[in-house]
Amino acid sequence: DATIKDCAWATARDGTEIRQxxxxxxxxxxxxxxxLGPVTYTGTMFANxxxxxxxxxxxxxxxxxxxxxxxxxxxxxYNWGGNLYRGGLKGVQxxxxxxxxxxxxxxxxxxxxxxxxxxxxxxxxHDPMLxxxxxxxxxxxxxxxxxxxxxxxxIIKLEETVIADSGEIYDNTI
Length: 174
Known about the structure:
This protein has one helix and eleven strands. It is mainly beta. The strands form three sheets. Strands 3, 8, 9, 10 and 11 form a five-stranded antiparallel beta sheet that branches. A four-stranded antiparallel beta sheet has the order 4-5-6-7. Strands 1-2 form a two-stranded antiparallel sheet. β8 and β9 (about 150-160) form a beta hairpin. The model has no long low-confidence stretch (mean pLDDT about 80).
């Protein structure tokens, strides 16, 4: 697609703020050597343009490039490539990536799908309300992750309004 540009990222506030500077099909992962026990992650995501497309989200519980959790939020239903990508349904999704292949076209396609893909990605939760995100809105993300109990909770707010709340989801893979 000629309208998709090369990756362009900028950081601010001593690395606590990351901005995607151009609409692209790029992903980014910030990795460190720190290991955390129970953690509550809070952050804000904002699409600062008029081209509301694709997913926004983040990874956590990262073990390696084939094993991690990802929270993805699709803006609208989108079946790109006919049947190849089958189901890019809008709404917040919590997924376990436990890939047999690691980074590959198979893993990429499995992440796109809203359903589980054996040997690649398991959908742990998909918001039944199918709420979409909107451009020019700042959404607060709150993730509670307690690996010793296998408990994960995803909460997304717009100002004080809860847009999505998974409740506690249990998975002991990571």
